[in-house]
Write a structure and sequence with these properties.
The chain is an alpha/beta fold and 766 residues long. 44% of the residues lie in helices and 18% in strands. It is built from 32 helices and 23 strands. The chain has an 8-stranded mixed beta sheet with strand order 4-3-5-2-6-7-1-8, with helices on both faces. The protein has a 6-stranded parallel beta sheet with strand order 9-18-15-12-14-13, with helices on both faces. It has a 5-stranded mixed barrel with strand order 19-20-21-23-22. The N terminus is likely disordered. It binds adenosine-5'-diphosphate and magnesium ion (MG). Magnesium ion binds next to α5.
Length: 766
């Protein structure tokens, strides 16, 4: 086969092809090729684990493809390999095609939401897990597919766990179908026993030793000592962290004081696994920036050659850190440093740069999210900086509150991050937290299905006609709590996506066609129906990207004032629409960048909104909800009351009442009682809100419950647009709303409600 590979190369590409083949052969997976193929031919399910970078994703699908093509009946094979992220599906397919000396769309293709390249001869398709699930919507038996490879199962994403249940059900009906599960090192036994003792193949890996530094060691390099002190206070003895200068008499460095401040802010004592929760108050990024700059500079000036990989919490920190580093004399000098970023939403052209070699003498520094932990391997990394946190969605089932918070990573993740440094030669890893914090990390991260809301998943189960939601989910690898399942079902009933027998309503069916959170899908649908599409598209896209309104720590007041200029009529969502429209106008005069800069807006978010708007518009077209005539779709787009009503339609039951008192107002929700507004909400700057209700996009529990992005609405809007407005269930809907209103026992509201209800009843009867 190796020789055959060479023959597909054109004459000019021959040398390239040889080199590539040599590279492929050097990967640990290559040595296991025969064992892997044999296992697959003898078992319906095979689990393959191996160190990141050993060649699972790029090689194993190719082994299968090559052996199938070689075999007599081979032409019929059709392999699907799923990836948890779009960016990996795209980049891996491109890589595999180029390893084979082909164009993308010949033998190898990809498909992600709204995008894809494949041809008639495509036999190996890389796609997101979501795409495969959607395919199963129309083709339950995956007819024609010979192999399904589910990659990165160790991440335990919701879609992957869901897919495994569906595939497990399918296997007996398709005995010739092969299922291959691949992952970085993990507890493969869990998967094996789920699939009735499927064989596990381990690809032996090799990494060079990595020297590990924790915060205390790093500080020592700066001349400070981080120590745990016994402090006697009123409550007895307590342990506290302190930094001290070893050479006395010098002023405290910026680094030492910011570390101390961060430790103090977090009430940073000695930690045991039992006190893990309190670790969440420590924000490593506030110490991180100075420390990271110091370390990077030190590496550039004093260390041997080799790329640096910096693990940051999320995209926003990456941006801020990049800005900071760009103004540094060494780190910001492109002749000395090639500064790159790596995260899930980057364009694939941008991603390719990560694999490039830097110019002579320059050092490559990549600022990455946890995407670089296992799914993307940067070959020449020798130094790793690890901030210890990752943004993770979690879900508090008891309070039915989703949270997107930076959380501490698991021990396994920290080891993965460290391992990135030892791929090509001995490396160094700097963990920006003390060793005792590491000791308190959980062993593994909780699977997503156990920590996030299940609404979209429930809709999917229904649209795939998989029977009772709770029965289905009880068959998962690890089943979610009953309470979380019930909350999701209740929510879907309240918003009118499921009827009282848990069947999909018409609205529910439309929602499954839109790969969006149900609330955003609802808004889009109504925006389309009411010919009010433009502003609603902006709102929905704005809620799907990183908050476009920036609030830098040190310029919070200015930023909030800038946002309030866009405020119209007590709505963050309308402020967003206005900010976006202003940016579009500015773009016409090529002044978009200045506009964003002046108004504390993120240009990346604006651009992302722009792209998403087009994507969502095509989704609506595909679902048959709009035609191409944008003028018709926007006949009512300037009607602010309508926009507000549609926002309410989407966000309900995200509802809080506005309780006025003499000078200001307070907010209450049914589940949480008193809640607060995020300080960057335009409504937080108001002393009075002349509306009785706020609908909100998201509530997040930190120390109190905070509402993010809210829009004020009137009684009548709530009554008409809150919940489902499907004709069949107006009565049930009114009862529920009535319950909500009466809960707050505001006599005048109850009265308004009664009179509106009477009007509505009359309306229905006529
Ligand atoms: P695994 O899935 O086991 O983590 P991969 O198959 O993704 O490993 O990668 C195998 C090797 O191929 C790695 O050394 C990686 O650096 C290299 N590689 C993968 N994609 C690219 C690419 N787009 N450009 C250059 N090298 C790549
Ligand atoms: Mg991989």
């Amino acid at each position: 086969m190796a020789e055959k590979f060479a023959t597909v190369q054109s004459a000019t590409g021959l040398a390239e092809g040889r080199k590539m083949l040599e590279f492929r052969k050097s990967l640990p997976a290559y040595k296991e090729k025969d064992a892997i193929l044999t296992a697959i031919s003898q078992n319906q399910v095979v689990i393959i684990s191996g160190e990141t970078g050993c060649g699972k994703t790029t090689q194993i699908p190719q082994f299968i493809l090559e052996s199938e093509i070689e075999s007599v009946q081979g032409a019929g094979c059709s392999i699907i390999c799923t990836q948890p992220r779009r960016i990996s599906a795209m980049s891996v397919s491109e890589r595999v095609a180029s390893e084979r000396g082909e164009q993308l769309g010949e033998c190898v293709g990809y498909k992600v939401r709204l995008e894809g390249i494949r041809g008639r001869d495509t036999r190996l398709l890389f796609c997101t897990t979501g795409i495969l699930l959607r395919r199963m919507l129309v083709d339950r038996n995956l007819r024609g597919i010979t192999h399904v490879i589910v990659d990165e199962i160790h991440e335990r994403g919701m879609n992957e766990d869901f897919l495994l249940i569906v595939l497990k059900d399918l296997l007996p009906h398709r005995p010739e179908l092969r299922l291959i599960l691949m992952s970085a090192t993990l507890d493969a036994e869990l998967f094996s026993s789920y699939f009735g003792g499927a064989p596990i193949l381990r690809i032996p890996g090799f990494t060079y030793p990595v020297q590990t530094h924790f915060l205390e060691n790093i500080l020592e390099m700066t001349g400070y000592k981080l120590t745990l002190h016994n402090q006697i206070d009123d409550y007895g003895q307590e342990k506290v962290w302190r930094t001290s200068k070893q050479a006395p008499g010098k002023r405290k460095s910026q680094i030492a004081s910011s570390v101390e401040e961060a430790l103090r802010a977090a009430d940073f004592k000695e930690y045991s696994p039992q006190t893990r929760e309190s670790l969440s108050c420590w924000n490593p990024d506030c110490i991180g920036f100075n420390l990271i700059e110091y370390l990077l500079c030190n590496i550039c000036e004093n260390e041997r050659p080799g790329a640096v990989l910096v693990f940051m919490t999320g995209w926003d920190d990456i941006c801020s850190l990049k800005d900071k580093l760009l103004s540094h004399p060494i780190l910001g000098d492109p002749s000395q440093v090639l500064l790159l970023t790596c995260h899930g939403s980057m364009a694939s052209s941008e991603q390719r740069l990560i694999f490039d070699e830097p110019n002579d003498g320059a050092r490559k520094i990549v600022l990455a999210t946890n995407i670089a932990e296992t799914s993307i391997t940067i070959n020449d990394v020798v130094f790793v900086l690890d901030c210890g946190k990752a943004k993770e969605t979690s879900y508090d089932a008891l309070n039915n509150t989703p949270c997107l918070l930076p959380s501490w990573i698991s021990k396994v993740s920290a080891q993965q991050r460290r391992g990135r440094a030892g791929r090509v030669q001995p490396g160094e890893c700097y963990h920006l937290y003390p060793r005792c914090v590491y000791e308190a990390f959980a062993e593994y991260q909780l699977p997503e299905i156990l920590r996030t809301p299940l609404q979209s998943l429930c809709l999917q189960i229904k649209s795939l006609k998989l029977g009772s939601i709770s029965e289905f989910l009880s068959r998962a690898l690890q089943s979610p709590e009953l309470l979380a399942v019930q909350n999701a079902i209740d929510y879907l009933k309240i918003i009118g996506a499921l009827d009282k027998n848990e069947n999909l309503t018409v609205l529910g069916q439309y929602l499954t066609m839109l790969p969006l959170e149900p609330k955003l899908g609802k808004m889009l649908i109504l925006g389309a129906i009411f010919n009010c599409l433009d502003p609603i598209l902006t709102v929905v896209c704005g809620l799907s990207v990183r908050d476009p309104f920036l609030t830098p720590m040190d310029k919070r007041d200015l930023a909030e004032a800038a946002k309030s200029q866009f405020s119209r009529d007590y709505s963050d969502h309308l402020a967003l629409v206005r900010a976006y429209e202003g940016w579009k106008d500015a773009e016409i005069d090529f002044a978009g960048y200045d506009y964003c800069w002046k108004n504390f807006l993120s240009i990346q978010s604006m651009k992302a909104i722009d792209t998403l708007r087009n994507e969502f518009f095509s989704l609506l077209k595909d679902a048959g909800l709009v035609d191409s005539n944008t003028a018709t779709c926007n006949a009512w787009s300037h009607e602010e009351h309508l926009i507000r009503a549609i926002i309410c339609y989407g966000l309900y039951p995200g509802l809080s009442s506005v309780v006025h008192n003499e000078k200001s107002f307070s907010l209450k929700t049914m589940e949480d009682g008193q809640v607060l507004l995020y300080s960057n909400s335009v409504n937080a700057r108001e002393s009075k809100i002349p509306y009785p209700w706020l609908v909100f996009n998201e509530k997040i529990k930190v120390n109190a419950v905070f509402l993010r992005d809210s829009t004020a609405i009137s009684d009548s809007v709530l009554l008409l647009f809150g919940g489902s407005i499907s004709k069949g269930d107006i009565d049930g809907h009114l009862k529920m709303l009535g319950g909500y209103l009466e809960f707050f026992m505001e006599p005048d509201i109850a009265e308004t409600y009664q009179s509106l209800r009477r009007e509505l009843d009359e309306l229905i009867q006529t």
